[in-house]
Amino acid sequence: MKYVVLVGDGMADYPLPELNHKTPLQYANTPNMDLLVSRGETGLVKTVPDGFPPGSDVANLSVLGYAPEKYYTGRSPLEAVSMGVQLADHDVAFRCNLVTLSDAEDYTNKQMIDYSAGEISSGEARDLILAIESRLGGADIKFYPGISYRHLMVWREGPEKTILTPPHDIPDQPVAKHLPRGEAAAEVLEMMRHSNAVLKNHPVNLARLEKGQRPGNSIWLWGQGKKPALPLFSDLYRLEGAVVSAVDLVMGIGICAGLQVLKVPGATGNIHTNFRGKANYALEALRQGADFIYLHVEAPDEAGHQGDLNTKIKAIEEIDRQVLGTLLDGLAEFPMFRIMLLPDHPTPLSIRTHTADPVPYAIMDSRGKSGSHNVYSEETAASAGILVPDGPTLMRRFIL
Asked: Which residue ranges form the domains of the chain, and what is each CATH number?
């Protein structure tokens, strides 16, 4: 038996007036997603436990079968694993976004214009993060460049309990109510404030401004935690497998779980990604002996955070056509397979951030039985009358 989990990050949404009160999932053309429902099971699953933030870290841990209540230590440590940064027991890792803030002179009066600095390129971002490292780094604090706007800061014996807000939670909002609070808040805020002074006139940003692009004119720190320890996926579920993703967070979870990480050329984490390439790499891994694939696509989530309706619909349709369609064609060569489709969490366009609402899932088994529904959507899943209480329970339901 071969098993494939396809995660469309942030696909779930709320009904929108401009779509005649349909969600993007309902509005999009998704014949392959609908096929899964018509030949299998659909329902809702609660991927974010009560009391936890509805982040992709918590939700993807849950979907992959790891209870966040037991294993969650923070987002950034998982990203550090993917980046090859070794954390000591006393290290605290922070996600370090490059963001675009408004031009107000006082940092506390600025506005969050763009949590991704206009989806800045990795090459440009590397120059900016190295500039930050040269000015703010030291014996106890190190900055590491990552992909696009997503970077890493490691603080030896740093604070774990500082209250920090993800920048994608405050689009187009004043930052004043979302600045660091609690433990070491003054030190964290000073780093962010100092970074703005370093970056606002950096040649990379001046060049971006000349081209009409948004500058990465500040770092924004959040998602801190210490190094994680996950049991191997093979020990929990008796399967060997691989992860396909363009996002350090998901790759880090995979590495911690003992899964192989497949890096696909052209995989970007946004709408300009190599959708079909991800599916083809997954299929080739199955041909080479993998039993299990966790295939993650970030594009719908990015569109949700940007409030971009058309791009979110397009991302869903590309997942259906290029990823799921390619997977279903390729999986036909195996005697038996099971495939599960779901978002990790909703990213509603109306609020441009994550929620903890249960998400729709669909499971199809090649040995097949007809389902009682024909459409994959939030509404159909709710009407099915199945609510799985958590991700690990769903994974056990999926893996026979």
From this structure: 2-72+229-398 (3.40.720.10), 82-225 (no CATH)
